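Record format v2
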Amino acid sequence: MTSPEATSEQTGSAHSAGIEGFWAVVPAGGAGTRLWPLSRSGAPKFLHDLTGSGRTLLQQTRDRLAPLAGDRVMVVTGQAHQDAVREQLPEIAVDNVLAEPSPRDSMAAIGWAAAVLERQGAEVMGSFAADHVISDDSAFSAAVRSAVQAARGGWLATIGIEPTFASAAFGYVRHGDPLPGLDGVRSVIGFVEKPSVQVASTYLASGDYRWNAGMFVVRPGVLLDLLAEQDPRFALALRELAAEPDSLAERWPSLPKIAIDHAVAEPAAADGRVATVPGGFGWDDVGDFDSLAGLLGERAALTVLGEESRVRSSDATGLVVTGSDRLVAVVGIDDVVVVDTEDALLVTTRERAQEVKAIVAALEAEGRDDLT
Amino acid sequence: MTSPEATSEQTGSAHSAGIEGFWAVVPAGGAGTRLWPLSRSGAPKFLHDLTGSGRTLLQQTRDRLAPLAGDRVMVVTGQAHQDAVREQLPEIAVDNVLAEPSPRDSMAAIGWAAAVLERQGAEVMGSFAADHVISDDSAFSAAVRSAVQAARGGWLATIGIEPTFASAAFGYVRHGDPLPGLDGVRSVIGFVEKPSVQVASTYLASGDYRWNAGMFVVRPGVLLDLLAEQDPRFALALRELAAEPDSLAERWPSLPKIAIDHAVAEPAAADGRVATVPGGFGWDDVGDFDSLAGLLGERAALTVLGEESRVRSSDATGLVVTGSDRLVAVVGIDDVVVVDTEDALLVTTRERAQEVKAIVAALEAEGRDDLT
């Protein structure tokens, strides 16, 4: 499962158990609403194999982290999904799957793991979403190692992905000057929310902005102390939760529901406490079917995720996801998205794929839990 | 089942059993390939309710003929479909469903019925396809009565539908001068195959052409004699088949496979033996999903054939046919055609709907009888 790191790095030779003292935290949450009906509340995005590789997104995330963290992997997921998570990652120790009673966004999820790891004496932790697709594991590893080195120095380090186009779908991290003694690492001036395409173009032109992939590498104690500067009660609650695991059901509902970006990263950047390392690897958060289509195939083709023999087409391009036994025939339509599952079918286009959220919202309003 | 004719007609008062001596022949064949996967070889088009009326196309055809022919209805269908036909039309006598061992096109089908009816002494017969959709039954009845009157005089009469646009999808009948003594009836100069849209426009502009709906009204003996002028062996074989019903399996395979239009109507028109009456009713051969979509709804809407509660849409127009239990969601796509059945799904557009034939041909070539 673990493999020695092939590239050179500055922290010493590769260890068959990865970077010493480094823990990977994998938040496995998110409904994946824009990937309905493939993604359901009962079986969200990270539990699916969206690349046709034979490994689910969650499993691919764990695979990618193995050379860096060995068995030091902690998954944070919803209680409804813990069984599926354990089934997909049988090698992860029981105690290393934290099961949230309800969704409280990323600060609580990552912060809880940080508090547990702090008690265990973990040196550095890195947070890596369970449902992103990354190519070039070697470049990924190099970026993580660089971030770990910065984290050891007390920084809240984040990996900034080299942007390949002026995307309006991602947040950006704006970097400043290089940090002395940390090769390739720069200070962070701030984070920006998803910009317009126009503004994103200026970002790319300036060369000072990268995509914020939400990958934070930091000492657990530093993370919680930074949180404490903004919300001391929240940080304390998380530390107490780690000290008293049985208090989960009682404490959890009162934890603030806030993203780590807002809770810690943005204020810390304003205080000059954040560093960024460049991520020169392919990265996709596979947010919707348009994104998935682009990931899996060429625009001039009809890509199939699933059993190809079940699909027949004539002059059609786009994406077909086959999830039932039906034959799917697509004729004379470009950039189509057809998602065929046993109990629900979606037909849309790549351009409009995001709007499936409206359908899911309507079904939820109708109480159709069986479908959402 | 029969109802008195409400409109005035020239042949005398309406009879509760329809037009005396008049038999309706209903050829129920045709694979309906362009309506796959709704239409299958095992359950072709005419067995389906395509108008959402609760009655299938076959049943609607029979209903329409009841005021004109009473119980004097003969259905010609494939052996594979005779059980379904009898089930849908339980009131039709056993002997009045002729079951073809194999498809031999329309001359054999209609000619066989003609030969049987000739032996029975039927006065006049009319042939009406099982899978067309007609509106305004009153105008239909009036046209048929007019055609029967011409047929009594020895003519091969055909109903020409007033064209509403320059369709390239139908054949046309070109009429000449009015026939003396037969109100509204004209001679037929000839038949033309499906023209280009450009040529069709000139037809409409001239006012001398109507759509050929393939509805022929004629004395059975006249039809067979006209056939005998072109192909005496064929006419003889049909008459011998009617005389010796047990010879069906033996005779059938050697019958020519030819449409009645080519076998009789065109040569008879050249010989001045064909008359046409105007059909001022809505008529659609529902050849493909584009046609069906136009029949069922407005272009600016998403029309559902099937269970509406199973369809969710956002900013979509076109046609959804629901034939399974699952939810169908259509988002941001215009003029779409989605045909959802238990074992096959079609996604196309109204404009390209005809091309489903290529998919069916491919499946047939692969031997996928289970699907076609």
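Confidence is low (pLDDT under 50) at residues 1-16 of chain B.
The longest strand of chain B covers residues 209-218.
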